[in-house]
Structure formats: C-alpha cells, structure tokens
Amino acid sequence: MADITRRFGWRHLRSAPTAHIRHHKRGKLTHDGQGLSFWYRSLSAALSEVPVDDRELAMAFHARTADFQDVTVQATVTYRISDPAEAANRLDFSVDPDTGSWRGAPLEQIATLLTETAQQHTLDVLARTPLAAALVDGVASVRERVATGLAAEPRLPATGIDVVAVRVVAIRPEAEVERALRTPAREQIQQEADRATYERRAVAVERERAIAENELASQIELARREEQLVDQRGTNARREAEEKAAADGVRTEAEAARKVRLARAEAEAARETGGARAEAQAAWLRVHGEVDPATLHALAATRLAENLPRIESLTLSPDVLTGLLAKLGRPDGGVAA
C-alpha cells in the first residue's frame, strides 16, 4: 500500500519499488511507473496501484479419483503481474487518494481465477486416475497438467498475469482410507520386525548353545585332567612309598648289620674280658695256692676289714683284751677262728 501524507490541501504519494502506480488527472495519465513519488490533489486524481512482485498463492481443494475416493490436493502457484496497465484496465486496482487503500479486492479476483483454473485441471486428471496411482504418481501428473493448463488459459495473459511456477505439495486421502492404506505396509514392517526379532532370538539361542557346549567341553577336559592328576598323584605316592620302603629296608639292614657287628664286637670283647678274668682268677688262685696260709688269713682279714663298717671307737674289757692277746700270742702265730 502506498504511503500518502497531507500538506495544505495537497497529497503526497510515495510508493514501494515493487508497486506500479498509475496517476490519471482529468482523464489523462500523468504518472505511470514503479517506485514513484509525487504531489497531487485528491479531488482531481485517479490512482491505481498494481503490485509487480512475485506472489505465492496457496490453494487446497477436494477431488475424487477414478475409484470414487475423496482426496485433498495442496498446491502453490507463483504468479506475477507482468503488464500493470492491462491488469489495471481489466481489474479494479484503484486506491483511495486519501488513504492509499484499494477500493476493491483485485488480488482476491486473481486468486479465484487461478484457484478455479488449477482445480479444474486437477479434477480432470484425478477423475481418470485410481487412488493408488494418484498417491504414487499423482503429484507429478497434477503439477504438469496444472502448469500446462494455466499456461494455456487465455484470461491470464489478457489480464497481464504470468504464472511463474506451480508446486503440488501433497495429495492426501481421507483419514480412514489413509489408515487402511497404511495397514498392509505396517503389517509388513511388523512382520519384518518380528522376523528380525525371531532371528535375533535364534542367534542368541545358538550362541547360548555354543557357550553351553564350550562350558561342557571345558568341564569334560577339566575332569579328564583331574583324572590324570589323580593318577599321577597315585603314581607319585606309590613311588614315594616304594622309595620310602626301600630306604627303610636299606636303613633297617644297615641298622641290623650295625647291631650284628656291635653284638659281635661286644661278644668278642666279652670273650676277651672273660678270658682275661679267667686268666687273672687262675693266676690269683695259683698265687693263693702257693702262698702261706697265715698270709692268706691276713689278706682275708684285711679284705674283711675293708668291707666292715667304720668303727669310730672300740672299748674292750680287760678279760677280753687278755684273752685276745693270749690268742694272738700263740706259739704257732695263728689266730683263733
């Protein structure tokens, strides 16, 4: 919308670079162009403002496919007013000289024209297309048909309108039909997911079985080695016992031999000692046989005296002492028994 200010009964208009201004004064065109700025009187001025920038027109409408299914088509048409003079002559782009606002609704007229034209071509395409094909290839076919139809529409160039681009955003069926169409794919996906789950479980079971087999094999190998260890320990114990028995036998034999030698030595010593004693006794007897009896008596008394207890003191009466002395003083020198 143009920017209009007031000064002393005059009006000043300043337009945007994307707006084409046409100023008529008393039926004559005085200003015509984009981005204009000029003074005018409102009572004698007739102004038109035509936008020349690219404009996006979003549209959504219903259509029916060949199998009588309702679908919603969402599309966007980009257009431009390439001939502002022709557009101003065909549509009401006049603005209020005091406010600068449009007196009519020219852009809504253009939107209606483009929407109805695009809808007509869309319905023509989808009416011959089944729902499945429309959902798969419908976007491209509808876009191509709408672009061709708008390019061939005679009213658009006559109004000074050029279609820049056509985009079909989506073709969607009703919610119930869409859910029904999604069901097979979802079921297939679920089946694939279940199959993957089963395969994963099968792999897990197989791995668990392999692990169990490995554990069992390890236990069997461990038991076998324990058996070998027990056998080896028994062999070692038996060998140790045999070696110990052999050593004990050797030690016993050595001890017996030692005792035999000791006994023999002791017997030999006893014989030697006995012989020596016998010889000594014989010599003693020979000596005593050759000695005088009085001497033997003295030796016997001496030996007896050695074995008698010690007498500290002895008291003899005169009678006993006299008799003893008488006996000791015998002419034969003997001692009474």
TrEMBL record:
Band domain span: 32-197
Annotated spans, Disordered: 231-252
Database matches in SUPFAM superfamilies: Band 7/SPFH domain
Residue stretches of biased makeup (Basic and acidic residues): 237-252
Cited InterPro entries: Band_7, Band_7/SPFH_dom_sf
Protein name: SPFH domain-containing protein
